[in-house]
Amino acid sequence: MDESRIDRQFEFFREIDKEKFIGRQTYLTDAKRKENDAEHAWHMAIMTILLSEYSNEKIDVLKTVTMLLLHDLVEIDAGDTYAYDEEGKKTQRTRELAAADRIFGLLPEDQGEKLRALWDEFEEGETAEAKFAHGMDHIQPLMLNAATEGKSWKEHGIRLSQVLGRNQNTAEGSEILWEYAYQKFIAPNVEKGRLKRD
């Protein structure tokens, strides 16, 4: 047994526990508190297992789930950048790259490189798995915003054009799920004035 290898793996596990402390702007379905990054990742992982049948292309489900479980770990260092925070987005990439170097660097080299490659693949958004993962990352908060009568959208004064801009590539992962999300989560909130038209 290579104790130093196991030690590094457990160091990583302890470090990523901090993801549970990273707050997001999306409320849980009871609208009483906001979700954290770990809850967000868990939710999308299950959604991917069950909704992968609607992917535009055949995907490796385990690979996609792994991407989603990993993609926000960098926020342990970089913090959560709210989807509509244009100022924060200016430094997001730099902050997240430095975080990826440090956090994945905690692991044994072979595992660190493998997970970092998956994180990079998600960030690039070019493969079928990355496109579907991005779709889940966008649709999950739409669902929660709709379930809470647009609470977070209303708090931040979010407009329809911002939501559509954020989701301009969501259909690349699944046209079916994007159409469903638009009809069930977005359109009703526009009609009820929770998402303002420009």
The total beta strand count reads 2
Termini separation (Å)?
A: 62 Å
Structural class, from helix and strand content? mainly alpha
Spatial extent as radius of gyration: 17 Å
Summarize the structure in words:
The chain has 198 residues and is mainly α. 65% of the residues lie in helices and 4% in strands. A hairpin with a 6-residue loop joins strand 1 and strand 2. The longest helix has 20 residues, at 128-147. The mean pLDDT is 95.
Give the helix/strand layout.
Layout: H1 3-16, E1 23-27, E2 34-36, H2 37-51, H3 61-70, H4 75-78, H5 86-104, H6 109-124, H7 128-147, H8 151-156, H9 160-166, H10 175-191
Antiparallel strand pairs: 1-2
Helix pairs in contact: 2-3, 2-7, 3-6, 3-7, 6-7, 7-10
Please sum up the structure shown.
By secondary structure, this protein is mostly helical. The protein has ten helices and two strands, in the order αββααααααααα.
Feature tags:
65% helix; mainly alpha; 2 strands; 198 residues; two-stranded antiparallel sheet; globular; 10 helices
